[in-house]
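Practice problem: predict the structure.
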Amino acid sequence: MKKLLALVLALCLALGMASFAAADELPTLDQIVWGENTDLTAKIHFVYHRTDIPEKLQGYVDEFNKTYPNVEIEYELITDYAENALLRIGNNDWTIMGIPTVDKDELSKYYISLGKLDTLNGLYNFMSNWAYEGEAYGIPSTGNANGILYNKRIFAEAGVTELPKTPAEFLDALRAVKEKTDAIPLYTNYAAGWTMGAWDAYIGVAATGKAEYQNQILPHAKDPFAKQEDELTGPYAVYKILYDAAAEGLIEEDYTTTDWEGCKPMLNNGQIATMVLGSWAFTQMRDAEGGEHPEDVGYMAFPITVDGKQYAPAGPDYCFGINVQASDDEKLASLYYLKYVTEQSGFAYSEGGVPIDKNGEYPDLYAAFDGIDMVADADALEGEATLLSELNSESELAINAGGNTKVQEIVEHGFNHDKDFDDIMADWNEAWSDAQATLNVEVK
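Answer:
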């Protein structure tokens, strides 16, 4: 009897310890309840690219600390972020970072899972961007609807009374700006580099009206950069706008000397008419130091119409991931902070972004998008989660993956009139076809 009792007691203790261990496991983002575990103590080192808003970020930290006073949060803000983050991704000198370009099958090497994708998709927008095999590893900081920044007053002075809906109408608007105002019609931001890669974001939904284009159709497409039957749609039409603008002198007089920080008050004050950037840039132009006309900053859809309708690609900005090497307390504190940023802080709204919280509010800047469908890219086909990144690497085109150089070359050749646009696109098609052949991709 004593042996039996001892065995039962040992079993109960073992079950109790197992139950405690299970209860002590790290919760997922959907299981986090704001206001619990307020005595949590941890230090978070947050690596981020928003060098323009250090005071605002500190304000969020101060508000968070009213509920979680023992969690110390330090932001490290980096200008050349994409390259720096990629170099540090395997280090333990950060706790949260905006996820750089990395193969999806390697996400679990660097980041913890925030929870099941199916569950988090019911709470937040754009969660599949950094997900793999049903696990979500990053939550977007904010969402973007990609369009074009423009100065309302300059458009009015140029006689542009309706927002352009086609490449031809947009180029006509740029010509009118050059003829009737002193503003730079289209500011390329060539020297910054990363701003040029932003053009890639428009070749999918905006240019085709298809959510499947970017991740499902493009990898299998034959000569995707060739002129379409309707030459005012498709990837060809997107890049042709930039080439024609450069060729006609509708850009800066010296594109090599553009200034990213300096361009913000320039658009605000009417020295620049348009810039092709995501909606995340709207608040930066509107609130630019030295800008005296925030009311003149507007945002419009990209000027391509597919079968009589315009589409705006919508997707995430940098997604926040938590370091798999962090301590359990650091991971838990990071989950609470990401919960706060997403649901409590109003960050996405204040940055002019599409809300991440499905119950979030859209800011006023999207007024010009009335009647325009905002569409997110569909996920890759089953078994092809890494195919696009493999093609990007093999072809060296890096579509939507830091392929800045190839877009800069469009500006160079257009401005210098030393290479025809169709020849540039033929080179890209050859590189893409060769990559498909090397990777044994079925071409449809």
